[in-house]
Amino acid sequence: MTNSAAVVNDLRVNRGGRDVLKGITFKIESGTVTGLLGPSGCGKTTLMRALVGVQIVEGGEITVLGKPAGHKELRSRIGYATQNPAIYPDITVTEALTYFASVLRAPASDVSRVIDEVDLTSHADAIIGQLSGGQLSRANLAVALLGKPELLILDEPTVGLDPVLRDELWKLFTELSQRGVTLLVSSHVMDEATRCEHLLLLREGDLLASESPDELRDRTGETDLERAFLRLIKDTVP
Predict the structure, then answer these.
(1) Is residue 20 part of a domain?
(2) Could you give the C-alpha distances from 31 to 73, 129, 154, 160, 197, in angstroms and in order?
(3) CATH assignment of the domain containing 97
(4) Is 89 within the bounds of a domain?
(5) Residue 173 main-chain phi, psi, to 5 deg
(6) 65 in a domain, yes or no?
(7) CA–CA gap between residue 223 and residue 232 (Å, rounded)
(8) Chain segment 99-142, per-residue pLDDT in tens
(9) Is the pLDDT confidence value at 235 over 60?
(10) Where does the pLDDT of residue 166 fall: very low under 50, low under 70, confident under 90, or very high at 90 and above?
(11) Is residue 47 part of a domain?
(12) Is the pTM of this model over 0.70?
């Protein structure tokens, strides 16, 4: 019996003749907020796509919620928010979420619930194409919250948002984990690492660390997590 929401073993992905993920292995424990951090182009989005089951992999094994990644039974158990929102721009927030709720077979009552959770109640009848960048990000997150996802995979959900809104979203992520939801949140902003219980640090397709913020600080001797990451790179990359 395992308490892991996801188990990845020797995952390898090659795209266009380039090794994007180079045999990485880790676990994500249930009910935690795990931060997936690293610079742009390091393989974060590819890893998330592999966990969802929409990425062709060269080798390795991925088990998500006890099933192989991509298994049909996982469709209603995973919420996935891509970095670039895929929401029709000419309909309202409520109409968009009603549509996605029907696709996901989520209860109609979920629409008002997720609108409230992402603080878009005052924009429920706004046209998607007229939303600000931050509001669009929240609408995209609302889609991932429909139903009762056990695992939320969020690709840079706070990119481009102001500090106040980023703080509000991270409070929501913490509340969700306290309800038992597992979250994997990618970011290239190192100060968000302090809000996570566990960190996965990627660089050029290699997994440099899979540990808690405190473990990373202890291992590197650095109190600042960004400096700890830089120390890790210096110590592990030839």
Answers:
(1) no
(2) 20, 34, 15, 27, 10
(3) 3.40.50.300
(4) yes
(5) -60, -40
(6) no
(7) 13
(8) 999 988 899 999 999 999 888 999 999 999 999 888 888 898 89
(9) yes
(10) confident
(11) yes
(12) yes
**What domain range is 86 assigned to?**
31-52+73-236
Question: Domains in the chain: how many in total?
Answer: 1
Q: How far apart are CA 128 and CA 89, in angstroms?
A: 5
Mean pLDDT of 180-205: 91
- Start-to-end CA span in the chain (Å): 38
State the DSSP string of the chain.
---EEEEEEEEEEEETTEEEEEEEEEEEETT-EEEEE--TTSSHHHHHHHHHT-S--SEEEEEETTEETT-GGGTTTEEEE-SS----TTSBHHHHHHHHHHHHT--TTHHHHHHHHTT-GGGTTSBGGGS-HHHHHHHHHHHHHSS--SEEEESSTTTT--HHHHHHHHHHHHHHHHTT-EEEEEES-GGGGGG-SEEEEEETTEEEEEE-HHHHHHHHT-SSHHHHHHHHHHHH--
pLDDT digits (tens, 9 = 90+) for 39-78: 888 999 999 999 999 999 999 999 999 999 999 999 889 9
Other CB atoms within a 10 A radius of the CB of residue 48 amount to: 23
What is d(CA 96, CA 84) in angstroms, rounded to the nearest whole number?
A: 16
Residue-level pLDDT at 43: 92
The yes-or-no verdict on residue 1 having pLDDT over 60 is: no
